[in-house]
Amino acid sequence: MCSPKIDTSNGYEKIENFDETLTKELSKNYKNILSLIGEDIFREGLDKTPERVAKSMQFLLQGYKTDPVEILKSAMFKEDYRQMVIVKDIEIYSMCEHHLLPFFGKAHVAYIPNGTITGLSKIARVVDVFSRRLQVQERLTSQIKDCIQDTLNPLGVAVVIEAQHLCMQMRGIQKQHSITTTSDFTGAFQKEATRDEFIKLISTKLS
To answer: How far apart are CA 84 and CA 113, in angstroms?
Structure first.
């Protein structure tokens, strides 16, 4: 059961909803993890850490609770526009499912309407929903593409994601400045000229 928590200690109202039962169960497990790595779970700095992490994980992985298809359907409009619609530089924050470490960066999404458009903010929300799950960047890219293609039935969809992975920067090969780029295209964007136009437009910086 989710119960609202209102924090006014800093002069503003902050409302957070967490599943109390889930928070308790997660806290037990995180307390066990801290103990297993050799920490003193009763010292002041760690006393509340299991609960904090339990709530943090619920926030970071909240994408499981939202249907991205319904997000797009909530703002679909008939419109006779058949040119490229691009929402670029959408910030993404996700969690690598292999190491439970964050990866973050930007997504660039485009579609060519086929009689139906959606609200621009809905594109960014779809990106956020899929990002707030345990992911690999390759799947994330394709899920965003498939959701928009299947829901809006446009003439084509293009998705490019550029991200930094802490599993590469903090551990493993430890290449701190590496960036991973993934892309996926459907329909009209499979044509070289259309795809090149998209790449050029997302590469252009506003002066």
So the answer is: 8
* Nearest one of 147, 82, 74, 89 to 116, comparing CA atoms: 82
pLDDT tier, 17 (very low <50, low <70, confident <90, very high otherwise): confident
Tell me which DSSP letter residue 83 carries. S
Mean pLDDT, the chain, rounded, equals: 92
Q: What is the pLDDT of residues 190-201, one digit of tens each?
A: 999 999 999 999
- The residue written with tokens 């829901």 in the block is 151
Among 143, 146, 60, which Cα is nearest to 95's?
Answer: 60
pLDDT at 9 over 80: no
The CA–CA distances, whole Å, from 202 to 31, 70, 73, 162 equal 45, 27, 26, 12
Q: Which residues are catalytic?
A: 96-99, 137, 165, 167
User: What is the C-alpha end-to-end distance of the chain, expressed in Å?
Assistant: 49
**Angstrom distance (rounded) from CA 131 to CA 112:** 23
What predicted TM-score, i.e. pTM, was given to this entire model? 0.89
Task: Tell me how far apart the 2 most distant CA atoms of the chain are, in Å.
Answer: 64
Give the model confidence (pLDDT) of 124-168 as tens digits. Answer: 999 999 999 999 999 999 999 999 999 999 999 999 999 999 998
Distance, in Å, from the CA atom of 81 to the CA atom of 113, rounded to the nearest integer, reads 6
Contact 27, 46 (CB under 8 A): no
